[in-house]
Specification:
The chain is an alpha+beta fold. The chain is built from eleven helices and 18 strands. The structure holds flavin-adenine dinucleotide (FAD).
Length: 484
């Protein structure tokens, strides 16, 4: 539903020196909402008339991108602190290809940004994560749905106009600077500045095939409503000559239960058992690290290399003795369950002889003290070196019926390749900012190697806010203040 606000109402500042400026924010996820809200506040603080319109391609019920459908864990030691190693950890995750200035800005601005988000009605707590401990995280109470609801409400109250079912198609430039946004409908919105916050290209079959090769276009979406994230903003900016960055063929992908109808039905129990393909054979070290350190490489292999693109986590009755074991899966569908491995193989359509041989070899290699088993940390309970592939942690024999199997396929959360931006969230062209063009969130290409866990929403907030402030300063003819 559109809500049109006239200049002077709500957050619209009066008295711009050279008439009303216009900002178009594209996308209603964490990045777009932060940008729109920050722009409205900045305009008001500067006493400038700036009209801010947030458009989203999706109908209102489906808008909100990945953000709305995620738990939105955020990598912070507490509400007002990131870990001292944050920047180093980011660079390590990006194989030291990431932009240190970008991550340093993220670390420096995260506490103030979270405080700002909280002040707009989003309460945070320190969540219990799946089973594995890891870097400390905070989380909005109610996850992404709370972000979506509260920031949409406060942005509306601040005078931002929302339009749904309204897809941006191209950017209009005048002398190299942003002058407007053309919609798919043919309508043109005037814009002194535009903020691209319309996600990655996970839902664009042609781009997925181009970047990931055969099968790239067949990776299921982890959040089905991310089907609107089809790389439009990347294409639009590239048409103006924007630079791209981020790992071209990088993606964050997780294992899910294909039988489930739940949103993002991840199966994260696999480190505590073994994983086999349909031939009944293992193909990787299930215990190489904490689950959020192995899920990406595993799921990618699962999709691109495993025949039939399906594998099974095989566990025994003892999984149910792990405290809170249910937290490690969001599938509502019970596992396949059988009294013998032979029956289990029949249920899942795997080769029974191979499965029996695989489990026997694995059990024989589980020579460590099972009392050491601890699902929450890398417990060092490794299988003996005779096992190939190895199992580095949680190597406990599969002995006690019933035997259980969860099917898994890989599903994409987001892509890494995107637009090149500076610490002021400005989109770069030949290394120089395109006047009036900003970008934040998943659309920006700052990840390489592996997705740093619990950083995507945080960076959408931080750089969304920066983009909004900068855009408001630009659209009102005054320099921005990207940090602080
Ligand atoms: C299941 C799941 C769990 C996750 N868990 C976490 C987590 O715990 N922590 C974390 O940090 N990250 C997590 N992520 C990743 C994170 O949610 C996203 O990367 C982040 O929310 C992206 O925010 P964004 O604002 O950039 O994009 P999005 O939230 O995806 O928003 C993009 C918006 O742009 C709109 N749009 C697209 N094209 C156009 C167009 N042409 N015109 C207008 N509008 C358009 C879309 O409709 C959408 O509303 C998870 C992802 C998934 C799928």
């Amino acid at each position: 539903m559109d809500r049109r606000v006239k200049p002077g109402e709500n957050g619209w500042a009066r008295g711009g020196v050279s008439g009303t400026g216009h900002i178009v924010v594209i996308g209603q996820g964490a990045a777009g909402l932060s940008a729109a809200l920050a722009a409205a506040e900045e305009a008001r603080a500067r006493n400038r008339a700036v009209a801010i319109t947030l458009i989203d391609k999706a109908p209102e019920a489906d808008a909100g991108g990945n953000t709305r459908w995620t738990p939105s864990y955020m990598r912070m030691a507490s509400l007002d602190r990131v870990e001292p190693s944050f920047v180093h950890d980011m660079l390590e995750a990006t194989k030291f290809l990431g932009d240190e200035g970008y991550f340093a800005t993220l670390a420096a601005q995260a506490p103030a940004t979270v405080k700002w988000i909280a002040a707009h009605g989003v309460p945070f707590h320190q969540p219990v994560y799946y089973l594995a401990k890891g870097p400390p995280r905070i989380q909005p109470v109610g996850g992404g749905e709370t972000i979506h609801r509260e920031l949409s409400r406060t942005a509306r109250d601040a005078g931002v106009i929302f339009r749904f079912g309204c897809a941006a198609d191209s950017l209009i430039a005048d002398n190299g600077a942003i002058a407007g946004v053309r919609l798919i409908s043919g309508e043109t919105l005037p814009a002194d500045a535009a903020v691209l916050a319309c996600g990655g290209f996970q839902a664009n079959a042609a781009m997925m095939r181009e970047h990931f090769g055969e099968g790239g276009d067949e990776v299921p979406l982890l959040a089905p409503r991310a089907r609107f994230n089809s790389g439009d903003g990347i294409r639009m900016a590239q048409q103006l000559g924007a630079d791209v960055s981020g790992e071209r063929d990088g993606m964050h992908i997780e294992p899910i239960d294909p039988r489930s109808r739940n949103q993002a039905p991840v199966v994260l129990l696999y480190p505590y058992g073994i994983v086999v393909d349909r031939t009944g054979r293992r193909f990787f070290d299930e215990g190489a690290g904490l689950v959020h350190e192995t899920w990406e490489a595993f799921s990618r292999r699962l999709h691109f290399e495993v025949p039939g693109r399906t594998a099974y986590a095989i566990l025994d009755a003892r999984v149910r003795t792990i405290p809170d074991w249910q937290r490690a899966t969001r599938s509502e569908v019970p596992p396949f369950e059988a009294g013998t491995l032979d029956e289990l193989a029949k249920l899942i359509g795997a080769d029974a002889d191979n499965l029996a041989a695989t489990v026997a070899a694995y059990n024989a290699a589980c020579t460590g003290n099972p009392q050491k088993f601890d699902a929450t940390v890398c417990d060092g309970l490794a299988a003996s070196s005779s096992l190939s592939p190895p199992k580095s942690n949680w190597a406990r024999a599969i002995l006690e019926p019933p035997f259980l199997a969860w099917p898994m396929v890989g599903a994409i959360a987001y892509t890494f390749g995107g637009l090149s931006t500076d610490t002021g969230a400005r989109v770069l062209r030949g290394g120089v900012p395109i006047p009036g063009l900003y970008a934040a969130g998943e659309i920006t290409g700052h990840f390489y190697g592996t997705a740093p866990n619990a950083v995507s929403v945080l960076r959408a907030f931080v750089f969304g806010r920066i983009a909004g402030r900068e855009a408001a300063g630009f659209a009102s003819g005054a320099p921005g203040r990207s940090a602080g």
